[in-house]
Amino acid sequence: MLNKIQSNEILDRLPAHLQQYIKPQNYEEYSSINQAVWRYVMRKNVSYLSKVAHSSYLEGLKKTGISIEHIPNMYGMNRILQEIGWAAVAVDGFIPPAAFMEFQAYNVLVIASDIRQLENIEYTPAPDIIHEGAGHAPIIANPEYAEYLRRFGEIGCKAISSSRDYEMYEAIRHLSILKEAEGIPEEDIAAAQQKVDYLQNNMGKASEMAKIRNLHWWTVEYGLIGSLENPKIYGAGLLSSIGESTWCMTDKVKKLPYTIAAADQEFDITKPQPQLYVTPDFAHLSQVLEEFANTMALRTGGLQGVQKLIDSKNLGTIELSTGIQISGDFSEVISGEGKPVYISTSGKTALSYKEKELVGHGSENHPEGFGSPIGKLKGINLAIEDMSPRDLKAYDIYEGKNVKLEFEGGIVVNGEIITGTRNLQGKIILISFRNCTVSYGDRILFKPEWGKYDMAVGKEVVSAFAGPADVYSFDLITHKTSSTTIKSAKSPEKEELENLYESVRNIREGKNAMFSLSAAFDIVKKDHPKDWLLSVEIYELAVYQDRKLAKKALDHLTDLKKRRPKISHLIEDGIELVDSALVS
């Protein structure tokens, strides 16, 4: 995909399984109505957020070169983002949480390039360029926050999901698409909402991914910073929502100190949030993140970590105390005294060390699974990995010897040693056998006729995490969403309205226009009586050029407020933006 877009050295580092989500921005597809929506939200936000947002936001707008007047061209924006060590890519709506976080780990900002419809100008449940470009991008100009975001991605993409997490992602993605699209029957939206509600109430025990996604939501998306009495906004969801950025500052939204407890607080992406968390500073975010990471199988390993991978039914990795990493679909663990004594994978499996696949141990070498004992040998205090060459020889553990290795957990390995593989510290991490039988009591786990047996060496599982150790060990370019974002339908009426918006935009920018300002107003008032944003734009220009037209536009807007009470505050805000600019 990168050959179709303007790349840079940061994007060039992305592995293929992340590149599969990237799409061209197609800037020419933004209509003049889209541009007007961007301009209104940005003007309103900058005016309001200058009072309530963290100082990094307005500074970041300048640093990242995001214009109030135009939807940003993402790959032009990349030239500026690169100066702060980041890049941006366009995607189609929501992508899986693990992929989203892995992009962050590579210092890449994921931007849903669609933009909300005028009807959803205050808030959209679907990610869009206002949310991503105007919300996330400016705040990452703060170095401390940017490092938190990168580190969050690095840890978050290793979080283990449950088997239902992906189903929930697909359901939320589908619902957000329907809610943002035009002309979708209410019963379709209700059915999609019902599915989300059902899944939310039947997820079972929250997975690591679910919990760290909660932390992401309450910080990166909906975070407040400062004191409980006087918080400032830094979360992108609030920075990009002219409705919620105002709502969140009222007493109707409960303010809580940000702690690890936020990991257990679920959220509903389709509704305003009833409570928000306040961090005293950006450093505290990293402190809580590390506190949570200490609870993850990534750092605790053990039997529980292996079991999490089995329950996830997804590709994952365990790392043993020698550093050898086993990546695959974990299918079974035999345990004893609360510890794993034998692990098994099914299907393609790869062995790695320090995230690099071991030569001769890729998924093509282990296409039907892998199994290995874990732990110390029975009656010997010294673990195999801690044995010196002299110790190994004393216990007949060297090439060409027939050995019977009895492990404390009851696993027995009986065969002829072919060779061993050592890590950089000289520790044995892998032993290969021929004519080998592996047993556990009366159960045969490996037979000689199955070929060479490779035994991973390690006295304990020190880490378990989602995904492969080496991203190049598996074909990960398999993502197919069940739904795609729905483009607005073009009708003669919509095309005429877009032409009117374009004319007004051209007049503002000193270009040739299809209609005069007065003619555009007459047409919008007669043929598009529900539209309000164009009349605001006409009023803005008319106060400087044609006082009589300005009066007509203001009267029309006043009438519209009465006829459309649900959006009267948006109209009033638009008028106020114009009037305050006059005063200043």
UniProtKB/TrEMBL annotation:
It comes from the Bacteria. InterPro entries: ArAA_hydroxylase, ArAA_hydroxylase_sf, Aro-AA_hydroxylase_C_sf, Aromatic-AA_hydroxylase_C. One of its GO terms (molecular function) is oxidoreductase activity. CDD domains: arom_aa_hydroxylase. The keyword Oxidoreductase applies. It holds the Pfam family Biopterin_H. Its cofactor is Fe(2+). Its EC number is 1.14.16.-. Keywords: Iron, Metal-binding, Monooxygenase, Oxidoreductase. Residues 1-342 form the Biopterin-dependent aromatic amino acid hydroxylase family profile domain. SUPFAM superfamilies: Aromatic aminoacid monoxygenases, catalytic and oligomerization domains. Belongs to the biopterin-dependent aromatic amino acid hydroxylase family. This is Aromatic amino acid hydroxylase.
